[in-house]
């Protein structure tokens, strides 16, 4: 059995996730990265995407966390993810995420109609976040 890593996801609201794992998969701005025990020290910016954590108790026990960007740090078998917001799959309010998706789609249409580039960019990010939360919730 491999040496476990500690994985923590932290937001301004506090610790969202704290468990031991054998494997972590995350999407950085440079692409996907898989992390195993004894990974070299690393700091990488994250995109809006899901984090996959394979827990130590079973190869089939996988946790999913929706992360809205942030920073991943790996050091001494400790993986820390600092994000503005993050939610575990079991904590996602799907109806709220669906409403946020519809609202963002309306804002995108409005921004295109008025040629408001700033509003369009914000709405596209909001849409990406909502879709990410919906997708992560489906892992349950």
UniProtKB/TrEMBL annotation:
Residues 91-138 form the ATP synthase epsilon subunit C-terminal domain. Keywords: ATP synthesis, Cell membrane, CF(1), Hydrogen ion transport, Ion transport, Membrane, Transport. GO terms for cellular component: plasma membrane; proton-transporting ATP synthase complex. Residues 5-86 form the ATP synthase F1 complex delta/epsilon subunit N-terminal domain. It holds the Pfam family ATP-synt_DE_N. GO terms for molecular function: ATP binding; proton-transporting ATP synthase activity, rotational mechanism. Its main location: membrane. It is a peripheral membrane protein. Produces ATP from ADP in the presence of a proton gradient across the membrane. F-type ATPases have 2 components, CF(1) - the catalytic core - and CF(0) - the membrane proton channel. CF(1) has five subunits: alpha(3), beta(3), gamma(1), delta(1), epsilon(1). CF(0) has three main subunits: a, b and c. Belongs to the ATPase epsilon chain family. This is ATP synthase epsilon chain.
